[in-house]
Amino acid sequence: MRLYGVTGWKNAGKTGLMERLVTEITGRGFTVSTVKHAHHSFDVDQPGRDSHRHRVAGAHEVLLASGQRVALMQELRGAPEPTLESLLARLSPVDLVLIEGYKRAGHPKIEAFRAEPGNTPIATDDETIRAVASDTPLELDRPVFDLNATAKIADFILDEVGL
Prior knowledge:
Elements: E1 3-7, H1 14-27, E2 32-36, H2 50-57, E3 61-65, E4 70-74, H3 84-88, E5 96-100, E6 109-113, E7 129-134, E8 144-146, H4 150-161
Parallel strand pairs: 1-5, 1-6, 2-5, 6-7, 7-8
Antiparallel strand pairs: 3-4
Helix pairs in contact: 1-4
């Protein structure tokens, strides 16, 4: 499975870049899945819905299916967070999996960087970051793209993964 990550500090533009890359790459005829890491509790379910009631009642997994989509919700209930590798194993085959977050994982990544928060680019200390997409010029030992140059960034990623 071909993997490429988008990483960066909070409010660096990761999600917007992911969204634009998915649109650009699928528009070229490739299939793409995404994995998003969250550092906080989240809920994709809605209180009062049947599936939410099943989870609150104690179900370990709730599979919700319709003619348009399938969602599997799994409650960890104190179990350790699944590894990225175990999560990837659950995905159906696609041309490319884009991964948002997972800064410390070993897959290749592009860093989304904005000058405004005042952070130092992660790329200065992380060799898994192969390029940076920035809203400001940077002097680095790897390619730096304009944060909004989606087609060029997509070209770079697709070349990196051999598509």
